[in-house]
Amino acid sequence: MTINRRHILLGTIAAPAILSLPRGANAQAAINMTLGHNAAAGNPRWIAADKFGELVKDRTKGRISVRVAGAEQLGNEQSLLTSLRTGAVDMTVNSQGSTSALLPELAALGLPFLFNDSAAAFKVLDGPIGAELDQRFAKIGMVPLGWWDNGIRHITNSKRPIVKPADLKGLKIRTPPDPMTIDIFKALGASTEQISFGELYIALQQGVVDGQENPLVNISSSKIFEVNKYISLSAHKWECSPFLMSQITWARLSPADRDVIKASAKEAGDLQRKLFLDTETRLAGEFKANPKVEINQADQTAFREASASVVDAWKAKPFGDFVDRLSKTARV
Q: pLDDT tens digits, residue range 135-144?
């Protein structure tokens, strides 16, 4: 269901009254929730978010409804996160980069070449490292419902193939507002510009920036390949999309409703991960077969060497002990 800011404001006024009924009444009261995200239609994040809403509705026989608003209908990721902390929005599935503005440790998941693939990343996140991040999220008013895939990331641009880091010289690359990504591209010799994902296509089309970095799924669903002919498979980092609920909303739910939310989030998350992997595999072949796109393999050894200093710099941060544990766990 598509909603706008006016709807969400009206829902915010009504939600506290609905969710603060006496315990006996709350078990049968109707509950309306909102879930905002920035993914385009057809993206695995979009599909899984809709599936989550369907699952919750089915499992509660319609008593709990989740109105899903994608493609930045309720604002960009930064504004969604602010709304999440105040309870104006109940849930979001945001990018790792934007969320790291509130939890800096999260950006460490994107250390250069930390994970070879998503499976390796989820092995770490589904263990003690993920549990530790859950606790850190609790301190900033958020309840993690799952870790969705935002993939191994590659570079696109409108000028030339990127084979070695030197090929980035003179290019302006859009990155999310993620300090890890910015550090990586500075180490590689590129200049960076932080632009909202919803404005990225136009920025590339108008030449505000020359290129950007994203997984193949996002490059396809947002049609970035239409304005960036060159796709260079750099695989320089991996990112997640944390599925988060407002702690304010969570506190108002009964134990039984929490169980429904958790079970639905798990099923939707499993779907998103599978869709993401399947789509990435399919797109690799489709891009190679597309005569309007030029795809090449970057020299990952050269990229690893050029970005190695980023790891040392992050281990020197105030939360460097977490970065060190994460690095060691990823190597196991």
A: 999 999 999 9
Name the CATH superfamily housing domain 5-108+116-150+240-280: Bacterial extracellular solute-binding protein, family 7 (3.40.190.170)
Distance CA 284, CA 149 (A): 17
CB 96 within 8 A of CB 175: no
pLDDT in tens, 172-211: 999 998 999 999 999 999 999 999 898 999 999 999 999 9
β-strands 230-233, 154-157 pairing: antiparallel
Q: Is 256 helix (H, G, I), strand (E, B) or coil?
A: helix
| 240-262 confidence digits (pLDDT tens) | 999 999 999 999 999 999 999 99
Contact 314, 326 (CB under 8 A): no
Amino acid at 221: S
Q: Can you tell me the distance from the alpha carbon of 109 to that of 94, in angstroms, rounded to the nearest whole number?
A: 15
